[in-house]
Amino acid sequence: MKKIMLFPILIAFACAVAGFYGALHNQISYTVSPSYFHDFKFDQFLIEPDLRNRLGASIVGWGASWWMGFLIGLPIYIMGLFVRGAGRFVKAFIKVASVVVVTTLFVGVTALGVSFLTVTEEMLPGWMQYFSVYDPVAFARAGTMHNFSYIGGIVGLFAGVAVMSREIFISKKHSISSK
Questions:
Q1: What's the CA gap between 159 and 152, in Å, rounded?
Q2: TM spans, by residue (predicted)?
Q3: Is 179 within the bounds of a domain?
Q4: What's the rounded Cα separation, in Å, for the pair 178 and 73?
Q5: If phi over 0 gives left and psi between -120 and 50 gives alpha, with beta otherwise, what is residue 125?
Q6: In a domain, 101, yes or no
Q7: What is the end-to-end Cα distance of the chain in Å, rounded?
Q8: What is the pLDDT along the chain (179 residues), one digit of tens a residue?
C-alpha cells in the first residue's frame, strides 16, 4: 500500500528531474546556438520578448521535457512495484531516474560532439531546408543535440528497465536470504 501511495510523489519527482534536465540541456544548446532559440524555439513556445534569453531557454527546456518524466517514470514505477520493501523501492526509483538522465545527457552530448565533426555549411542536415536562419551550422548542431536527446530518453528508458530488473532481482534475493 505504501508503494501505491508513493505514486504521485515519485511521478512528480520524475517530471521535475526531466524538466530540470531540459532547462540544463537548453543552456548547452543556447551556448551553441542562440539562433536556435531566437529563430525557432522562442516563437514555438510563445516566450515573451523580455524573456528571450537564457532564462527563456530554460523555460523552453522545462516545457519541452517535463512530460518525458511521466512517460519514462510510469513504466519504471510499475516495474519498481516488484522491488521488495518501500524504502528499497524508492531508492531503486531514484537510482533508475539517475541512470535515465545520465544516459540521455550522454546521447545528446555525443550527438552534439559528432555534429561538430560532421555539420558544415556544405553538409547541413536535410531538415535544415525548412529554416532560414542567421547561423545555419550552429542551428543544425543545437537541433541535432535536441533531437538526439529524445532518442537518449528512450535509450535511457531501456537502460532504466535493465537497472530496475536488476534491483528487483537483488531485492528478491535479499528477501529470501534474510528469512
A1: 10
A2: 64-84, 96-119, 148-169
A3: no
A4: 30
A5: beta
A6: yes
A7: 22
A8: 899 999 999 999 999 999 999 999 999 999 999 999 999 999 999 999 999 999 999 999 999 999 999 999 999 999 999 999 999 999 999 999 999 999 999 999 999 999 999 999 999 999 888 888 989 999 999 999 999 999 999 999 999 999 999 999 999 887 666 55
Q: Looking at this protein, which amino acid is placed at residue 83?
A: V
- Cα separation of 9 and 87, whole Å? 14
pTM reported for the whole predicted model: 0.90
In a domain, 132, yes or no: yes
The answer to whether the Cα torsion of 169, 72, 61, 126 is positive or negative is positive
Q: Which domain holds residue 123?
A: 2-173
Q: Are 91 and 13 spatial neighbours (Cβ–Cβ below 8 Å)?
A: no
